[in-house]
Design goal:
The complex is a heterodimer of chains A (195) and B (171). Chain A is built from eight helices and six strands. Chain A has one domain: Thiamin diphosphate (ThDP)-binding fold, Pyr/PP domains (Rossmann fold, 3-Layer(aba) Sandwich). Chain A is globular and about 45 Å long. The termini of chain A are far apart. Chain A is an alpha/beta fold and 195 residues long. Helix content of chain A is 39%, strand content 14%. Chain B has a single domain, classed as Rossmann fold. Helices cover 50% and strands 16% of the residues of chain B. Chain B is built from eight helices and six strands. The chains are: A alpha/beta (195), B alpha/beta (171). At the A-B interface, α3, α5 and α8 of A face β2, α3 and α5 of B.
């Protein structure tokens, strides 16, 4: 599975979920495939999942999805323990793990390229293995994510992707065509009638 | 001088009056009476986090969803939180930071040196308004006013608390 196939699967499963995406390619790919007012793109590194957690706690009847690359997620991965302690059943976290930083020439390896295993990390901080998945292809990713968004969460999905098929340079990526301020305004409006 | 519990109750009254309904916190020796008072009140959703910047990010999510959150932390956490505070300013999803320690008088311990040095620098650098509390009896109104500005102007706001103001042990 490459990144584009993974994001095709995520976009197809999204439905009406509130989405916070981390920095980089995943934001532009989602914007092109499944944009909605309930989306914050390019949240700063390490914080997409924590912001999603805040929304999930505030709006327990709304499905909330965080999408991050493994570099960003690992930078803020203490949030795994907080999520499991609070256990919002409407929160799903998807990490697309291609083992390289999604910046510059896209060749610099991340921690997962040197053995860091995010699935085992989740289990180590207490997650029940029934809430942690590592789909092997886009079909399974779509199935797992669709099921996870049906509640019973929180859920943590780590999908390994093949970086060799990604666009070669960060400058070649699609980018969301909405300012982060406009995203926040739209998100607030979307959620204001949703309590 | 008011007792620690009186000050904590005063802070709670100010928070409730301002509409605060959530609190993200990390334990801090000065602010613990406030944390415990908020917890006992059962009027505020209490969210304990693992790092202060994570907590601020959670508060940004709460803000996006229309909740009014206060972050309670030692000021050292403001240093960790500079990036997410900057994002909160850029996208106008403000948070209220109540932090112990200041760059002013009443900081006797060398191990708080870095903590005392950074809070105001981060706030100034990001253009985030802040106040340093000076009078325990003013804390209710001060917190109320801080939240009022945060909501009205869509800017984060810092309220820095010198240790001696809220902790009997530091007087």
């Amino acid at each position: 599975m490459n990144r584009i196939e993974a994001m095709d699967a995520v976009a197809a499963a999204r439905a009406d979920a509130v989405v916070i995406t981390g920095p980089g390619a995943n934001s532009g790919l989602l914007y092109e495939r499944a944009d909605s007012p309930a989306t914050i793109y390019n949240m700063d590194m390490g914080y997409a999942t924590a912001v999603a957690l805040g929304i999930a706690l505030a709006r327990p009847h709304r499905r909330v999805l965080a999408i991050e690359g493994e570099g960003s997620f690992y930078a803020g991965s203490v949030v795994l323990s907080t999520i499991w302690r609070l256990r919002p059943n409407n929160l799903v976290v998807v990490v697309l793990d291609n083992g390289v930083w999604g910046t510059g020439d896209g060749l610099e390896p991340t921690a997962t390229a040197f053995g860091v295993d995010l699935v085992r990390l989740a289990l180590a901080v207490g997650w029940d293995e029934r809430h942690v998945y590592s789909p092997v292809d886009a079909t399974e990713l779509h199935r797992r994510l669709s099921s996870a968004l049906g509640r019973g969460g929180p859920h943590f999905i780590v999908a390994k992707t093949d970086a060799s098929k990604d666009e070669p340079s960060s400058t070649a990526r699609p980018r969301p065509k909405r300012h982060v301020l406009d995203c926040a305004v739209l998100m607030r409006a979307e959620l204001s009638g949703d309590a | 001088m008011a007792a620690d519990t009186d000050i904590a109750e005063s802070m709670l009254r100010g928070a409730i009056r301002a509409g605060v309904d959530a609190c993200v916190y990390l334990p801090d020796s000065c602010l613990m009476p406030i944390v415990r008072t908020f917890q006992r009140s059962q009027r505020v959703t209490m969210i304990s986090c693992a790092r202060e910047d994570e907590g601020v990010a959670i508060a940004v999510g709460l803000s996006l969803a229309g909740r009014i959150a206060v972050c309670l932390m030692e000021a050292s956490g403001i240093g960790y939180s500079a990036l997410i505070l900057a994002r909160a300013q850029v996208q106008r999803t403000p948070v209220v930071i109540v932090a112990s320690h200041t760059g002013g008088a009443g900081e006797p311990h060398d191990y708080h040196g870095a903590t005392a040095l950074l809070a105001e620098g981060v706030f100034r650098g990001l253009g985030i308004p802040y106040e340093i509390a000076t009078e325990p009896r003013s804390l209710e109104t001060l917190l109320y006013r801080v939240v009022q500005t945060t909501r009205g102007q869509l800017t984060s706001f810092g309220l820095l608390i010198p240790p001696f103001l809220v902790s009997e042990a530091d007087r």
